[in-house]
Amino acid sequence: MTDTVPRPTLEAVAARAGVSRATVSRVVNGSDGVREPLAERVRRAVDELGYVPNQAARSLVTKRHDAIAVIVAEPETRVFADPFFARQLRGISKELTAHDNQLVLLLTEDRDDHARVGRYLAGGHVDGALVFSLHIDDPLPQLIQRAGLPTVYGGRPDWNGGQGGVAYVDSDNRGGARDAVRHLLGLGRERVAHITGALDQTAAVDRLDGFRDVMGGADPLLVAEGDFTPGGGERAMRLLLERCPSLDAVFAANDLMAAGALRVLREHGRRVPDDVAVVGFDDMLPIAEQTDPPLTTVRQDIEEMGRLMARRLLNDGAELDGLILPTMLVRRASA
């Protein structure tokens, strides 16, 4: 049996540095009001003794936990299968790590999960929340509001009519969709169809609105709802071909659905882009480069979106409004 080495205490650091315990506490917690020569003596004593602050006790003093809840309003099967979420989480993680904050990932799939997350947030375990992939009528915003946590959302919120008072980061979904459809029309295409995302999410609604901005009174049969998954793109593409066999272009609301649409077009003997031109949304690498043919798509910087969400939350002076990131059409062989 080995003896346990006593953990250095604040008192031990104070004795080594020849200062009071209160002075050591202020230096360790990054507070002002300690003259630099004294602060340097404390830091030297900390290094010599190998003192590590007690995080639980520090949280009681500073009222901070250096932990941020990242809430994704999707089941884990979707989160870990869709590279969109990996990119956004990577951007968030990089920014939080740079500021010495821990990421706490919370996923919600049903009402029981919402109740669990609400209890966790109300328990005071984290300093704030980052939330994305919300669906219309999701109870999470109300749960977070009751918990009183600073929050930044990924995507335009819908529960307040977009009237402000909510911090969020989003891409120019509507403008990007307009660029995609204008590109298809510029190629001489006349029967342009749209595969939407899940229409209980604002990104999908905004991209559908962008499609309609350009197409005006397009035949409603040229719009089919998907769900942001490859399978959803396949089902929507089959429905569109049944309804409108003469369609000559498709704008899909994300790259995963565009990849599904390409597979169905190939099954039906439609050449891309000769017979049907296809444009996606996201520029999700390597998917967009590895489809057959490589996918023309609208690029949004998903990782940057995550990074800016975290930055806005960590910046106490962040205004409660929306930050919209630009998009860009990336041309490849599919259109």
List keywords for this structure.
45% helix, alpha/beta, 335 residues, six-stranded mixed β-sheet
Q: Helices, strands, pairings?
A:
Layout: H1 10-17, H2 21-28, H3 36-49, H4 55-62, E1 67-72, H5 76-79, H6 83-98, E2 102-107, H7 111-122, E3 128-132, H8 140-147, E4 151-154, E5 168-171, H9 173-186, E6 192-196, H10 202-215, E7 223-225, H11 230-243, E8 249-252, H12 255-267, E9 277-282, H13 287-290, E10 296-299, H14 302-314, E11 322-325, E12 328-330
Parallel strand pairs: 1-2, 1-3, 3-4, 4-5, 5-11, 6-7, 6-8, 8-9, 9-10
Antiparallel strand pairs: 10-12
Helix pairs in contact: 1-2, 1-3, 2-3, 6-14, 7-8, 9-10, 11-12
> For the largest beta sheet, what order do the strands appear in spatially?
2-1-3-4-5-11
Order of helices and strands: HHHHEHHEHEHEEHEHEHEHEHEHEE
Sheet with the most strands? Answer: 6 strands, parallel
What is the averaged pLDDT score? 88
Radius of gyration: 26 Å
Helix content: 40-55%
**Into which percentage range does the β-strand content fall?**
15-25%
Please report the distance between the alpha carbons of the first and last residues.
71 Å
**How many helical elements?**
14
In terms of structural class, how would the helical and strand content be classed? alpha/beta
